[in-house]
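ok so for the tutorial part 2 we go from a plain amino acid sequence to predicted structure tokens. step 1 is just haveing the sequence, like this:
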Amino acid sequence: MMATAAQVLVAALTEQGCDRIFTVPGESFLPVLDALHDQSDVDLVTCRHEGGAAFMAAADGALTGRPGIAFVTRGPGATNASIGVHVAQQDSQPMILFVGDVARPMRDREGFQEIDFPAFFAPIAKWTARIDDPERVPEYVARAYATAISGRPGPVVLALPEDMLSEACTTPPRPFVHRPAQAPCPDAMQTMVDMLNNAAAPIAIIGGAGWGPKARQFFQQFAEAIGLPVATAFRRQDAIDPGSSVYAGNLGYGPNPKLVERVQSADLILAIGARLGEATTHGYTIPPLTASDRKLIHVHPDPAELNSVYPADLAICADLGEFAESAALWHDEAVIDFDCGAQAHREWNEWATARPSGHDLDLALCVQHMRETLPADTIVCNGAGNFAGWWHRYWRYAGHPTQLAPTCGAMGYGVPAAVAAALRHPERTVVAVAGDGDFLMNGQELATAAQYHADLLIVIVDNGSYGTIRMHQEREYPGRISGTDLHNPDFLRLAQAYGAWAVSASTTDAFKQALAEAQGLRGIRLLHCKIDPEQLSAGGATISGLRAR
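step 2 — the prediction. this is what the tokens look like for a chain of 549 residues:
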């Protein structure tokens, strides 16, 4: 029988290992939905908003290392999904968004919901294209996978004219695409060793594009062998075992002041996989862009990232796993030992140990209790807001991957990411952490979680405010509250409407009791934490303190 382009598209996806698709269905790709009806080995997850579907695809790509797949319709569907594409781009995560497009004869007439998708998505995607020829569907799908996973991973967007999907296609799917192996140059490795031997106060900043279990294992082995302090880039805290004797903590918002001092005084910085973006470097000041008394070794799988912002004294373009393995296999006697790794780890342990703050519901103590109670490989998902700072500081991201958090600071990511994680890893504990404003950005995806029997715990930190903006507001315009107050629904009744177990807690003891009860249950569980708005950040910022300052 002659296959349609839509049937070949689905076959091409399964050839690439696709086993799950997130979607909000649209009439523009009905032939694809029909082709999926007979594809029992692809799990079609119907979401309640295209932004949620795209977030789930981005999170799935982060978990698997293969592109997460989403299908949305043209116009409003695509623009809603654009937030997930932006997250995948800034987070360097593989993703492919398929967009049902207007029929080819309707193009350039401002047809119903028409948008020039290659032009629209070009600034926030690695590659955008439209498939006009049904015979080229396998070519475009294979290229999309190759582009999404190679170099610095990222999102690809393919537009699918609805009339093209129903036409015949005789071209077979292309074979499975692998990420290219890029071994580091041996001469560059020797130069790196020489630079380490000449350093007095080195530090590594790790995590980012293409970082995986192999890179984690071997780089940790290398760093521990020579006593090299290792800091993680912003929201890359699972890049190393927090129990490692050389783990120095995380950079980004609210880092340990002693770690900041260590980075500022370092005479050699090894940036492995990290882009050294604005959040990680506190606006390109930690470390500064240039310094006469500091050397920079930058290792990244994409040559376009090397020397793009920070000038590198040694730039190595290599797959991070290959680089880390080469470093670990280098002769131990080739590099002198440092004692600063152990010192940095002690400083981090001190910083990441919670102490009572005096608040009725003390988030630091609550997170520390979660850490002591939940499995070490728990996957923690969060969107944007000051609330995340308590988990960044006091949680231990012990496995990989265990941290799903957007480096671009997109609100509403935590709940969809947790749904994706719960479906991908039903054997593991999954926790979504959200502020009250953050949760309501995509809280409707609880319906998706319920429909597909996802097992996850949601912790809402409710201070009746857009807390991060309130903090900035109190710092710049003390006492002049404008636009940041929130009047929230009854979160318990809202959760129960989705069939969830839900409990509210306003004290630390109540939180501990509720967490213990939640652990004995399955399905959707929601823990609503009502906190004092005075408790602004994990760093100790308070409304009264900012106003007094």
